[in-house]
Amino acid sequence: MMDPTFELQRIRALEDELSRLKDELATTNQGVLALVVELEERDERLRRAHRQIFRELEDALRPPLPDVGYARFGVYYAPAEEAAPTGGDLYDVLTLPGGELQIVVVDVAGHGVAGTRGALTIIHTVRTLALEGYPLESLVGRTAGLLQSAYPDLVGTLLVARLDPRAGVLRVATGGHPPPLVITPDGNASYSRLMGRGVGYPDPGSHVIAEHRLTPGTTVLFYTDGLVEASMDIVAGMDHLTEVAARHHRLPVEVFADAAVTAMHHRVLHSDDTLLIAMRWHPAGSPA
């Protein structure tokens, strides 16, 4: 027969062991919880640092708009990939030595940093040729020709516009890019009629140069196809853009771009890099 005293001691020993294990488990759980909290805080600090780096990189790649007295601008830009700060859509705005304002919009195939690298290559080539005095009529073709041998895999569309600030004459060349939308002060909106092929395409160059004589208060939209392809129907998207432009044309141009993109992207079936530049011309002496 088992000794009752021995059995009681064994039970107490088991209870003590169970209590010790519970204490160790509680201590371990507290340590794990503290580690999880520390890791989450560290991850959040890394996310904030990444967002800050992305914002700084995006700002570095987006050139400052020139401070001119005859035009005001609004810009919207968003990459397709949340994890990447930039994409294949970029722009450049500068005043040429002769006084014309040049606006360039580029859309390179691909997203992320690789797309940005290709877009910057085109932007810098166009800028260099423009500063060397190449006329608008040959600028797109010359750009494509120079890049074809050095970057045979580079494919992208581009648009180059030049504004004579005194006369209000806007001339536009395209390399397969969507046409700008010209909005008169009374809200009538119409697209430029353009033809041409971009970098990486057969027979590149702008085959038709569009010319517009702007009236004071005219707004011109330069954009990439991410703005008008969200519904996966570019024709319907361009029609919608004319309606949105007519509805919002009285807004200050500085907020027009954000309002237009919000209206265009109320239903997104296809996500892509999106760029929109709104320029409003006000010659010297006209009301802003």
If you had to describe this structure to a student in words, what would you say it looks like?
The chain is an alpha+beta fold and 288 residues long. It folds into 2 domains: 1-61; 62-281, Phosphatase 2c, domain 1 (4-Layer Sandwich), CATH 3.60.40.10. Helices cover 42% and strands 24% of the residues. The chain is built from 5 helices and 12 strands. The protein has helices spanning 4-61, 112-131, 136-150, 234-248, 253-264; strands spanning 71-78, 89-95, 101-108, 156-164, 169-175, 181-183, 189-191, 195-197, 205-208, 210-213, 219-223, 274-281.
Q: If helices are DSSP runs of H or I spanning 4 or more residues, what is the number of helices?
A: 5
Helix-strand pattern, N to C?
A: HEEEHHEEEEEEEEHHE
The fold-level CATH name of the largest domain is Phosphatase 2c, domain 1
Number of strands: 12
Tell me the radius of gyration: 29 Å
General form: elongated
Per CATH, the architecture of the largest domain is: 4-Layer Sandwich
β-sheet strand percentage = 15-25%
Give a concise summary:
The chain is an alpha+beta fold and 288 residues long.
